[in-house]
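Work Package 4 report. The design task specified in the project plan requires that, given a folded chain encoded as structure tokens, an amino acid be chosen for each position. We show below one input record used in the internal validation round.
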């Protein structure tokens, strides 16, 4: 990303020429967080009164402060007021479908349902957000595929919501925050995975979450930079948890997508995981093969933010070290600012077939397009 301490070019990056004839599926496109005005017609009167009396107008995520440089590329018009969904859809069409020429986009709504301590209200809000996604986005734009919002603090309620809308053709995954109350491999979360597997949905684990726990292993940081950079630690912890707790042994059909957490850390994690598993495998007998093999079979990662070294050959080597061409899914992270050019979305020098797999084929297999 450009040094935002200086004047920067606000021209949007362009699709590289080498992708001229390539299919492209964007697997990380953000929807604006809906306000109370947008959700009102999707809520029962009880919850309308509840929100009015409490003064709550929205449940906004803290990861992307509205005026932080990361929050949107300067070449992208600021997100329109939350009451104008049509304007937001027009912007998405312009930049994702027209500018990047994507054939489909997988969307996420970052509303922080996990921050709500009232389980009944959390479920009501998740249902309202999902109905809003259907009415205002999926019904209006057939190229969109969405992520089901659920209350992870109550997995039984989450499973109910998955069963309610899990067969809707517009939804392709269940969305969970990476910063959860507990490691996501714990058995308390298994009803969510059972429901996702029942409806052949992926589980998307996205950057963010308001768990009440310190957001780094050593406590609370002082600065937003620390907050943002340390997200990769949370993703690593969740990968180790999901494998070690036996989630994939119990749910062999489960597909997990790690969204907006990077991926360059994964080869080193797999090497260490395999090494230590050899000495401690009797503790977790259900992990009956090297963890790296389980990870390659069940876990996928989006490409943004891309930790791009000065020499692109180093990044190509890191991608090769993943050990499986099916692991990466193309993403722009619209409207966030993670790259300076189209070349910054994927490194040059990838094999042609691998690049095409990352751009679209892997998403089609993961999300059952």
């Amino acid at each position: 990303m450009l040094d935002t301490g200086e004047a920067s070019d606000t021209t949007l990056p362009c699709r590289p020429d080498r992708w001229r004839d390539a299919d492209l599926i964007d697997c990380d496109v953000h929807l604006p967080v809906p306000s109370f005005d947008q959700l009102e017609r999707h809520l029962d009167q009880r919850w309308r009164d509840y929100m009015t009396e409490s003064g709550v107008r929205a449940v906004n995520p803290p990861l992307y402060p509205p005026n932080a440089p990361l929050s949107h590329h300067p070449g992208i018009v600021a997100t329109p007021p939350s009451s104008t969904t049509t304007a937001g859809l027009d912007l998405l069409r312009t930049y994702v479908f027209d500018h990047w020429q994507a054939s489909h986009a997988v969307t996420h709504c970052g509303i922080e349902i996990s921050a709500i301590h009232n389980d009944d209200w959390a479920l009501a809000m998740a249902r309202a957000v999902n109905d809003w996604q259907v009415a205002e986005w999926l019904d209006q734009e057939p190229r969109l595929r969405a992520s089901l919002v659920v209350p992870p603090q109550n997995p039984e309620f989450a499973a109910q919501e998955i069963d309610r809308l899990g067969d809707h053709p517009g939804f392709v995954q269940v969305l969970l925050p990476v910063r959860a109350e507990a490691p996501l491999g714990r058995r308390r979360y298994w009803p969510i995975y059972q429901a996702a597997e029942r409806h052949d949905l992926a589980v998307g684990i996205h950057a963010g979450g308001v768990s009440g726990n310190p957001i780094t292993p050593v406590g609370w940081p002082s600065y937003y930079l620390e907050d943002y950079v340390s997200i990769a630690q949370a993703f690593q912890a969740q990968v180790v948890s999901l494998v070690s707790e036996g989630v994939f042994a119990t749910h062999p059909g489960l597909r997990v997508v790690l969204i907006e957490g990077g991926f360059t850390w994964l080869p080193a994690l797999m090497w260490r995981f395999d090494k230590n598993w050899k000495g401690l495998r009797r503790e977790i007998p259900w992990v009956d093969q090297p963890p790296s093999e389980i990870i390659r079979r069940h876990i996928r990662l989006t490409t943004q933010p891309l930790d791009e070294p000065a020499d692109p050959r180093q990044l190509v080597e890191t991608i090769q070290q993943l050990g499986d061409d099916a692991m990466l899914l193309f993403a722009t992270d619209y409207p966030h600012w993670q790259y300076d050019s189209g070349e910054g979305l994927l490194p040059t020098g990838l094999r042609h077939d691998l690049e095409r797999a990352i751009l679209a084929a892997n998403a089609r297999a993961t999300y059952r397009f």
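Residues 1-8 have pLDDT under 50 and may be disordered. Validation will be extended to a larger panel in the next phase.
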